[in-house]
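Appendix B. One record, verbatim.
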Amino acid sequence: MNFELSCLFQCPTPTASIEMRVGVISDTHGLLRPEAIAALRGSDLIVHAGDIGRRDVLEQLRDLAPTHAVRGNIDVQPWARKLAVAAVVRAGRHRLLVLHDISQLEIDPLRAGYSAVVFGHSHRASVESREGVLFLNPGSAGPRRFGLPVTMARLQVTGTTMRPTLLTLA
């Protein structure tokens, strides 16, 4: 599934096109699959939307690219308590709001100047635009649950455009 979203709020006029490849993953539940590692190779940045499960998952991600992660509802271990429940991540000219559970979104992302909201928790991959803001759930890249496919996402950022792609791993 491909989805293209052009920036609808005031974005700086690009003097040069910034290109960035962002790997987006969630709900690993302690399992970082070889297929996910392969799909994340070459990323300029990785975003993990929570339910990491084990510290070594983050360490493996950080070996691939700079990684930003938020705490999910299963991340209760001492190492995980240090993670924020929400984070703001810059991807080129875009600000991404990252949180685990979309039901905890308490702001208007458009008014707050976010280009995208990245979340997980439901294990259901989805891409949609709401009032010009990209809402991206990469699905679950960990153990298969609820009969759903094992998925993650890639976000291609070029200047003021973001193009998300959902990837099925298993």
